[in-house]
């Protein structure tokens, strides 16, 4: 197995290493666990423990061996702001009017609070960043979201909750992007060893871009190793739940910004003290707002009635049959899209089919594959799957059998053999939109029937 070492420098990793910080050890026998939630930006399940080729993630693989790896975890939105708003409240972003990318100044509905406020009231010290990324990216107004910048500042014996962002899987061109990370790798990912989704051309530029993404994933893995080592060195690993997840899907075309699995399917690994069945692989459907509810539950917080999520650990854990996700404004592009997904089927409803797959200007500047795909398209050298990225319009409805078609390429919405599944998922989505009083769709005119499907 290859081992990759990265040379750290200013601009890639914060100078203040968390390993140099010291915290008081919680007294032995403390009942309430510490909780560390590590969020990697813009990442899907391209990890070794998920079976992805060409990438080595020993720290996350080992964490999965010690804990639980979830194979069906999904964000409620395919971009950071709405997804993080939902996770910080445990409530769908479309219910709280925080569904747009960076539309600031929203006031949360009366009585709703971020989970950090509820944890603080329960006696937890709340820390943001801990020497790594301190991103929150919230649309709603809030004071004193966290108590401090590192769990080392807590009182002796006080349990803590820490939220840490690892940003390397975000392209971040102002920091050199993935190219800067690749230059620091002693053994960068071989572009010939990667496996591209079929909607990307087998082209050197595409292979290298995907390989650089995997370099960034490996860099994230090295940070996870540092965080886990700090917990061990401080003697608190045995009383700390560690959660690793993405904040939204991968930073590629048909990924981030879209409701295909590349945009909402994220890794989720939970390592908890005294895990009764280490190495468990959980195939249940999980929404990332369930992680918010789970954190409150294991901390002993009485769960507010307004939560849309529910615990996935412990005696109050509940299973889902489906998840919901939504996309609205991203930068200058308003594109209302909603979806419901079961283990086997996904239904997507496009309220702005005339937009096609138009990306915002920022995305267009930071997707090297896009220029290649446009050039090959002009030459007539794309497959049907690859041509989808350049489509000028979208279907009003999309239905995919994910067992037969995991890359969501064959739309079955018009198939006479799938009308039963279509009608069932239409009804589920309509019910969710009505129950949450979807604030994003309140911006558009819906007359008589559902604007896209004619089902409501």
Kindly describe this structure.
The protein is α/β, with parallel strands linked by helices. The chain has two domains: 18-320, 3-Layer(aba) Sandwich (Alkaline Phosphatase, subunit A), CATH 3.40.720; 326-443, no CATH class. Helix content is 26%, strand content 16%. The chain has twelve helices and twelve strands. The radius of gyration is 22 Å and the shape is globular. It starts with 33 loop residues before the first strand and ends in a 21-residue tail after the last helix. Mean pLDDT is 91; it is low at 1-30 and 446-456.
What keywords describe this structure?
4-stranded antiparallel sheet, 456 residues, globular, 8-stranded mixed sheet, disordered C terminus, single chain, Alkaline Phosphatase, subunit A, alpha/beta
